[in-house]
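Bug #77: duplicate submission created two jobs. Keeping one. Sequence:
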Amino acid sequence: MSNQHLYLNLYENLKQQIIEGQYQSEDKFPSKRALSQHLSLSNTTIEHAYQLLLDEGYIYSKPRSGYFVSDIETLPIINRNSPHMNYSINQETSYNNIEDDGNNAETLAFNLSEIDAEYFPMQQFRKYARDAFEDDQLSLLQRTNPKGEWQLRQEIAHYLFNSRGVTCHPEQIIIGSSTEQLINLVTDILKKPQFYIENPSYPPIKKILDKKQINYKQISVEKTGIDLDEFKKHNYNAVYVTPSHQFPTGYVMNLKKRTQLIQWAQQSEQRYIIEDDYDSEFRYFGKPIPALQSLDTKDKVIYISTFSKSLYPSCRMAYLVLPKNLSSRYDKLSNKESNTVPAHLQKMVASFMESGSFERHLNKMRKVYKAKLKFIIDTLTPYQEQLEVNGAFAGMHFTLTVKNGLTLEECLERAKEHNLKIIPFNVYDNDLSEVKFILGFGGIPFSKLEKHTNALINTLINH
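Kept job's structure:
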């Protein structure tokens, strides 16, 4: 059993004991040295498991006193019916004898657009839900501002400035139910837009442009970002990009190309950049690159992001930051539709952000997803001659290129044999000649991470 497997399993079982009440709030937790001796595990294994528990708030440390169990009422809620290993640190048993749940028929899926819901602070969010429906919130029952609730827009402005360097006034922000809805609105605001879009790209953007019969050119994406040289072949006035973690390749646009893109936009009054910063909260390695909007000095960047990854997918809430002149143009639009996000949900999210809980939640989830990604990448590293990983510096998906001669059909057939669901990259790029897959990891529980990764190796590796 690998050391990675040991510390992840130890972490899962200790967490489960806390959740199930084997420890009470403020109980003293075993010292790392005592637990290491009791289980005959290395100090490093214990330290890694304890660090995860610390990062996620299950335990806390007191200087020179040791570790203590956190307030149970504030701990993340988990699915108590999920399979877990029956193990207690008080049992006279060998840790290495713990067995998996043995459910070989289970589908192992590297799905996109999934979060790890176990760690969502449901108790806190429930409190804000109660507050939103109190008697003194009767104003929330009325028709709201088409741009959204002021308190939420104010909190988003503060958050964007502190986290992404985006400078804006709440009046420039519009709340919507999805990125697609907001992009559709942008096409109404821009005058006779003609678009450059990434190739491959986020599928809804093409659907919107096709439906509205707006001209667009697909521009190839390089490892450093969209190929700006191809812009010279046409004279279009808008570009849609996902620079922080390109979808679907996962590539990150470098700073030089970001600067060149802004310079392109500034060369004409009619040119604008639509920056979709959809999962920029999650960058795991290297220094974060600032948002395009933060580099722009002439109001040429339209900024879009969503709460789907930072909160939860069913939240159905996104937001748009318009440059000042386009915000004025929006205000003058006739027949603006009403805001599509329930006012009470907006109030709940605003309170969650105002309390600081949103930032703490993001910090926790960043560590959770980084630990998952690191486990997968480290496990795949011995096979790097057969598998090439890309796009793993940020976000909640990466790509895997198979370089050992297996065909796409062979890989998919072998995936069926291992009950594995993986998404071929050619779903997004029909012209792709490589055997390549796009893998989401956010929704895979720690306890099932090794099983998923082993199935991936058994499917794609020629032994």
